[in-house]
Design goal:
It is a single chain. With 258 residues, the chain is an all-alpha fold. The chain has one domain: MetI-like (MetI-like fold), CATH 1.10.3720.10. It is 72% helix and 2% strand. The chain contains ten helices and two strands. Strand 1 and strand 2 form a beta hairpin. Helix 2 packs antiparallel against helix 4, helix 2 runs antiparallel to helix 8 and helix 6 crosses helix 8.
Length: 258
């Protein structure tokens, strides 16, 4: 049960929640940055048309084979296949499992510097948390980016080619600027999701908000009050962010209305 005395005891450890707030914001911001970069590469890989075995799908008369194993092999795109496997694996497995694999297996035998960021965030735990969250977020963001790129009219690409632009120039100057405008709202919503999902990093000792809850519970033997404070902190992070996202989404959609 809640009690005034319980909140008073919990308030004595409010500094832990302040540190957890800073850590959560840093964790979420870095996850969005690195996750977006990874997602951009994954989306481009999935949209690529690299088929090294294309010649296997052409018969002796120069006609394209439509059926059979050779036709399937000619359509095989290893770059797109690798990106697809990555996305499906990370979307189909629990975040906790991914976090533990990154922390205990990938970084298990790597000796990271033991310094503290901002004086309290342990780098050797913070970095694996960022990597795990970014890799997971990248899988979801790549689908958002891919959908945004595919939403651009193909006629614009044809026009770019007729003007002599290369595929990279077309993607950089024509497709991506329009696609990013379309996908900014879901990307921003992913940031809100990451803020909430970052709470799982307390399981590896990252000093975010839920870590503060666990530490306060151990010191005060109270759990309800620390959880209420954590709920308020998360709400104060996500609710204003959601409203800001909604505002910019309305501003960006004004030019699309006729």
């Amino acid at each position: 049960m809640f009690s005034a005395a319980g909140f008073q005891k919990t308030w004595e450890y409010i500094e832990l929640f302040k540190q957890g707030l800073v850590c959560t914001i840093a964790l979420s911001a870095l996850t969005v940055i690195f996750g977006f970069i990874l997602a951009l590469f994954l989306a481009i890989m999935r949209l690529s048309d690299i088929r090294p075995f294309r010649s296997f799908g052409i018969d002796s008369e120069g006609h394209e084979i439509e059926d059979g194993p050779m036709a399937a092999l000619s359509r095989f795109n290893p770059i797109s296949f690798i990106a697809t496997v990555y996305v499906e694996v990370f979307r189909a497995t629990p975040m906790l499992v991914q976090l533990f694999i990154i922390y205990y297996v990938v970084f298990g035998n790597i000796s990271l510097p033991g310094y503290k960021i901002f004086g309290f965030i342990r780098f050797e735990r913070f970095l694996p948390g960022v990597v795990a969250l970014a890799m997971n977020s990248g899988a979801y963001l790549s689908e958002i980016i891919r959908a945004g790129i595919q939403s651009i009219d193909g006629g614009q690409t044809e026009a770019a080619r007729s003007l002599g632009l290369s595929q990279i120039q077309n993607m950089r100057y024509i497709v991506l600027p329009q696609a990013i405008k379309n996908i900014l709202p879901p990307i921003a919503n992913e940031f809100v999701t990451i803020i909430k999902e970052s709470s799982i990093c307390y399981t590896i000792g990252v000093q975010e908000i839920m870590y503060a809850v666990t530490a306060t519970k151990g010191a005060t033997y109270r759990i309800a009050e620390p959880l209420i404070i954590a709920t308020v902190v998360y709400f104060c992070l996500t609710f204003p962010t959601s409203k800001i996202i909604a505002y910019f989404e309305r501003r960006m959609s004004r030019g699309d209305k006729r």
